[in-house]
Design a protein that fits this description.
Elements lengths: L1 E10 L4 E3 H5 L6 H8 L3 E3 L7 H16 L8 E5 L10 H9 L5 E5 L5 H15 L4 E9 L9 H4 L4 E11 L4 E9 L7 E2 L11 H5 L6 E2 L1 H23 L8 E4 L4 H11 L10 H4 L6 H11 L8 E8 L3 E8 L4
Parallel strand pairs: 4-5, 4-6, 11-12
Antiparallel strand pairs: 1-7, 2-3, 6-7, 8-13, 9-10, 12-13
Bound molecules: oxa(dethia)-CoA.
The site of oxa(dethia)-CoA has 21 residues, from α2, α6 and α8.
């Protein structure tokens, strides 16, 4: 018995925010952004679009491709760092929008690794036997928590969502191995300081711009370049495969230099690597399911393909999943 992805979907806001637009907003340049990150533009959701709206749209597409109705879902997990609100969970809001009345629902906080964490959890639930169908979503409206006076962060992130319907199957298709982990000592390197119980919202926190993403870029970069190839190796070894066996490498889309370092270390060529950060920037927990959905649309995923997904993010968290694409 294996957990298989039965259908994938995604959603992107219409509006594009280009590097040239950012040049007019903050002290930066297209040249710097492209050279240091590989990003050219990102999508930005207009008010009143919420995280749950993008999650819902991606889910409708995933359910349609899976050939299932929302009523058949047993569980909905939304991985996000930008929920509609603190509580209730965005997953409960999505459950209502979908009419998935038989599904339990919760959010998961693991930063950009959120989708990988959620998929790993879904697999465990499915194999434990209780559930038939689980909807796993990565959805973000990061542009709402970016400080457009902070060039270190505001050029990197964008909005979007991706979703996958996961179910049980008895063929060779499905998740072959997974690893998730964390190094909480790096929590300080990527965080949103105020608004939680540690630092409740006050006039002072607003004036000090503490409700925005704060990041130590070089520290996260160091962690990311090490962990991406390390986790890839461990996930492949766990299932008895090598780099050469990978048909599609779907890395977290944070920085082209991080992806290229991993490709070089693992000897994975460009045609086997999914890169879309030039168009969408870093959409955090949405990067991987968005990438899967696009790869599916572009015909880059065939039944039997070995897909390697690897992510890292706030926490600091990390995770990797090796999957044989296809379903019963
Ligand atoms: O999903 C997980 C989330 N985040 C990440 O994965 C991010 C990981 N880190 C990175 O991708 C890179 O560290 C960045 C792209 C964020 C930064 O690149 P870097 O090569 O590490 O640059 P740096 O932070 O060391 O900054 C180099 C210089 C600094 O100027 P000085 O102090 O040398 O004069 C920055 O102030 O570049 C400056 N800088 C910029 N200049 C123009 C930083 N951001 C910008 C900018 N435009 N947007």
């Amino acid at each position: 018995m294996k957990a298989q992805i039965l259908g994938v979907g995604h959603a992107l806001p219409e509006r594009r925010l280009t590097n040239q637009d950012l040049e007019r907003m903050v002290d930066t340049s297209d040249e710097w952004i492209v050279e240091r990150s590989g990003i050219r533009e990102r999508r930005i959701a207009d008010q009143p679009t919420k995280c749950s709206d993008l999650a819902y749209q991606a889910s409708v597409m995933a359910l349609e491709r899976a050939g299932l109705s929302a009523q058949q879902l047993d569980l909905i997990i939304v991985a996000t760092a930008t929920p509609d609100m603190y509580f209730p969970s965005t997953a409960c809001i999505v459950q209502d929008l979908l009419g998935a009345t038989n599904a339990a629902a919760f959010d998961l906080s693991a930063g950009c690794t959120g989708f990988v964490y959620a998929l790993d959890i879904a697999e465990k639930y499915l194999l434990a036997g209780d559930y038939q169908y689980i909807l796993v979503i990565g959805a973000e409206i990061l542009t709402r928590i970016l400080d457009y006076q902070d060039r270190n962060t505001c050029v990197l992130f964008g909005d979007g969502a991706g979703a996958a319907v996961v179910g049980k199957g008895s063929s060779d298709y499905g998740i072959l191995s997974s690893i998730i982990g964390a190094d909480g000592s790096g929590a300080k390197y990527l965080c949103l300081p105020a608004g939680g119980s540690a630092m409740p919202a006050s006039l002072e926190t607003v004036q000090n711009r503490l409700h925005y993403v704060k990041m130590n870029g070089p520290e996260v970069f160091r962690f990311a370049t090490r962990i991406t190839s390390e986790i890839s190796t461990r996930v492949l070894q766990k299932a008895g495969f090598t780099y050469n066996d990978v048909d599609l490498f779907v890395p977290h889309q944070a920085n082209l230099r991080i992806i290229k370092t991993a490709m070089k270390r693992m000897n994975i060529p460009a045609e086997k690597t999914l890169i879309n950060l030039d168009m969408y920037g870093n959409t955090s927990a949405a990067c991987i399911p968005l990438g899967l959905s696009q790869a599916h649309e572009e015909g880059r995923l065939q039944p039997g393909d070995l897909v390697l997904m690897v992510a890292f993010g706030a926490g600091l968290t990390f995770g990797g999943i090796l999957l044989r694409w296809g379903r019963d």
